[in-house]
Design goal:
One of its GO terms (biological process) is cobalamin biosynthetic process. This protein is an all-alpha fold. It is built from twelve helices and no strands.
């Protein structure tokens, strides 16, 4: 007599809200840092660790800024080197998402055209303008922060990197996928528990770094998430990897500007 097959047992870490393998998985996804990923099945469950990637990337960029200050470079160049490190460590993936989002959302006449433009590797005028404005704002904010108070500048740099990456799992939990393929679709759907954990982690780290100043920064990060989420839902019906990247970039700028004295 044939025995019924038992359902395959799911690994314990597949059900866990948090697992240590989530951190290298998040780092590998959101940066160019060389990490060994032993577990890839958790996908969207690792999204809670995105703020930790911000902590790592922001921390290394802050170290670059401190090194530049130690060499006696002017704060203009210190800010530029810190910003350059942020871009290099992530392979400019979020900047690319910003450009694609600007081109697609404002260059297409309907949902299908917008998604097609966002998938195109060529950059258009809207993308160029968006990159120029956002990167100029990041540079200018860091310049003023370094020129005013180095300790506050370091805290603001790291906190903005953390809080801006908490916006991504939030949008992944709130909005449906706008397309049937792409990076965001491959990662999967994020649960509200995972997104909430990421937000709580980011808020806690921001509080430790900024003290009471963190509250205005958190408000701006939330505002950016809500506004871009609403625009994305209206124009393309959901979120994509490009939308997530654009949200990260704009949230980072908003947080930095909110912390400029």
């Amino acid at each position: 007599m044939l025995q019924p097959k038992k359902a395959p047992r799911m690994a314990k870490n597949d059900d866990a809200l948090i697992h240590i393998s989530d951190i290298p998985l998040a780092v590998a996804l959101l940066s160019r840092l060389p990490v060994r990923v032993a577990e890839t099945s958790r996908g969207a469950k690792a999204a809670w660790a995105y703020p930790l990637v911000g902590l790592i990337v922001g921390g290394l960029s802050a170290l670059m800024g401190l090194l530049a200050l130690g060499l006696g470079l002017p704060t203009l160049l210190v800010a530029l080197l810190s910003l350059s490190m942020l871009v290099v460590l992530t392979g400019a993936m979020h900047e690319d998402g910003l450009a694609d989002t600007a081109d697609g959302l404002w260059g297409g006449w309907d949902r299908a055209a917008r998604l097609q433009i966002m998938k195109d590797s060529h950059i258009g005028s809207y993308g160029v303008i968006a990159l120029f404005l956002v990167q100029s704002a990041r540079w200018g904010a860091l310049w003023v922060l370094y020129d005013t108070n180095v300790a506050h500048a370091i805290a603001a740099l790291i906190a903005s990197s953390i809080l801006s990456r908490a916006t991504m799992p939030a949008l992944m939990a709130i909005l449906p996928h706008a397309r049937a393929d792409g990076l965001s679709r491959n990662v999967g759907s994020v649960s509200t528990a995972t997104a909430g954990l990421g937000a709580a982690l980011a808020a806690t780290l921001a509080l430790l770094l900024l003290g009471g100043s963190c509250f205005q920064a958190i408000v701006w990060a939330i505002l950016v998430t809500v506004v871009i989420g609403a625009i994305a839902r209206t124009k393309i019906g959901g979120q994509t990897g490009d939308i997530l990247g654009a949200t990260q970039q704009i949230a980072e700028v908003a947080v930095l500007l909110s912390l400029v004295p």
